[in-house]
């Protein structure tokens, strides 16, 4: 006659799990779903296995690859304030708009000309442009960037001439610009003519490109690109939070259905 094993011979994995044990595992699964660790299909499969489990050994593999309830949560991503506040002094409501009262500083220009012959020149950053600026290139290139520049006057004329060379002018979207150049066997491209924001300087760009090229383009400043990146990142976070909320609602519905089935089973047992 075969003897039954003594209770001490049973391993922990063979012990019977209680309803409370199964509910603790189900709660861990719901947290994993809300955090995006499980998709809905995986969650439903594991939840079904949880409520069917009879021993600790059957419950253990269900959450083996998930952090426990006491695991430290990841540091929250700081929220970025995207609300536009009025600028000091009654300026633009856009927090990254150029304050032209600060940019038009008067005084002497830091540079009034640029020249390149078999080489190149550049004017960029927080340099100061005067009422006129003249540049010439021959078999070379130049770059004039006004996105962070200071202005000695509200009326600026930029005169550009190139022979078999090139000059690129970059202006911010806030600036009032008029382009009047001529290209001969070359190009004088204009992608910037247009009105600026109130109070912006008036910049006229004229000149000649002979067998060469001059281009004028509007480009965002670094702070504006950073703001757009933050807005896109915040939008992704908002969509992720919305998906998590939807997953949580579905998980809660799933839990309630399981509880209803459990209640019906208990009622049938009591009836018997």
Write the layout of secondary structure elements.
Layout: H1 19-34, H2 40-52, H3 56-59, H4 100-103, E1 111-117, E2 120-123, E3 128-138, E4 141-145, E5 150-151, E6 155-163, E7 166-171, E8 176-184, E9 187-191, E10 202-210, E11 213-218, H5 222-271
Parallel strand pairs: 1-3, 2-4, 3-5, 3-6, 4-7, 6-10, 7-11, 8-10, 9-11
Q: Your description of this structure?
A:
The N terminus is likely disordered. The two termini are 34 Å apart. The strands form 2 sheets. Strands 1, 3, 5, 6, 8 and 10 form a 6-stranded parallel beta sheet that branches. Strands 2-4-7-11-9 form a 5-stranded parallel beta sheet, with no helix packed on it. Helix content is 32%, strand content 27%. The protein is an alpha/beta fold. α1 packs antiparallel against α2, α1 packs antiparallel against α5 and α2 runs parallel beside α5.
Keywords:
272 residues, alpha/beta, 6-stranded parallel beta sheet, single chain, rod-shaped, disordered N terminus, 5 helices, 27% strand, 5-stranded parallel beta sheet
> Strand content of the residues, in percent?
25-35%
Order of helices and strands: HHHHEEEEEEEEEEEH
Specify the overall morphology. Answer: rod-shaped
Distance between the termini: 34 Å
Q: Helical content, roughly? A: 25-40%
Biggest sheet details: 6 strands, parallel
Low-confidence stretches: 1-8, 72-92
Continuous helix count: 5
Structural class: alpha/beta
Topology, number of strands: 11
């Amino acid at each position: 006659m075969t003897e039954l094993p003594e209770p001490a011979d049973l391993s922990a994995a063979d012990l019977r799990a209680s309803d409370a044990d199964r509910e603790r595992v189900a709660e861990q699964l719901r947290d994993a779903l809300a955090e995006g660790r499980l998709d809905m299909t995986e969650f439903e499969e594991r939840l079904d296995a949880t409520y069917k489990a009879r021993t600790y050994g059957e419950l253990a593999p269900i959450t083996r690859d998930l952090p426990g309830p006491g695991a430290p949560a990841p540091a929250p991503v700081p929220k970025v304030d995207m609300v536009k506040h009025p600028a000091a002094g009654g300026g633009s409501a856009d927090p990254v708009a150029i304050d032209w009262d600060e940019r038009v500083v008067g005084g002497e220009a830091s540079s009034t000309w640029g020249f390149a012959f078999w080489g190149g020149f550049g004017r960029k950053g927080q340099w100061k442009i005067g009422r006129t600026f003249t540049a010439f290139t021959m078999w070379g290139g130049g770059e004039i960037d006004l996105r962070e520049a200071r202005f000695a006057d509200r009326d600026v004329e930029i005169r550009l001439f190139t022979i078999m060379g090139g000059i690129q002018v970059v202006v911010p979207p806030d600036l009032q610009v008029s382009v009047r150049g001529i290209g001969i066997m070359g190009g004088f491209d204009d992608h910037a003519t247009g009105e600026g924001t109130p109070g912006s300087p008036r910049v006229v760009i004229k000149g000649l490109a002979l067998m060469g090229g001059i281009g004028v383009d509007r480009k965002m400043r670094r702070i504006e690109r950073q703001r757009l990146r933050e807005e896109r990142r915040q939008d992704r976070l908002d969509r992720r939070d919305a998906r998590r909320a939807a997953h949580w609602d579905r998980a809660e519905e799933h839990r309630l259905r399981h509880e209803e089935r459990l209640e019906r089973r208990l009622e049938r047992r009591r009836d018997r």
